[in-house]
Amino acid sequence: MTDGQIDVRREEIVTTLAKTRREALQQGVMKGTRELKDGRILAFEVDACFFDGVVAAETKGFFDAEDLPPWDTWLAYRVPVGEVNPLLLSWVPSTLVATVENAIKVHMSNAYRWIDLSSAGG
Fold first, then answer.
1. pTM confidence score
2. N or C, fewer C-beta in 10 Å, the chain?
3. What is the maximum span of the chain, computed from C-alpha positions, in angstroms?
4. Residues forming a β-bridge with 87
5. Is the pLDDT of residue 95 over 70?
């Protein structure tokens, strides 16, 4: 499988997951989501990561052993305009932002960054 095919497959998986979750939220199927109203969007450059488990240890399991955020927080997998590498976008609840921030600081690959929505023009 080529890198391009892998990226397309990743995008399909994340898009399907996000669509299914959005529909469940709209139908009221998912309970206990009110406390998730506030938070931040984290961008993760999957292919720039060492998959060394550092952020998993730093966050006490919020990230998995491969340094991925939890699948149920994934929002999109895209190549941003003007960039080359795809990013996995995920939601970090406000209660975990400080913990994730500490993990970002100790991780060597700089594979993580916050998305600033205040300058997105929306």
1. 0.77
2. C
3. 41
4. 78
5. yes
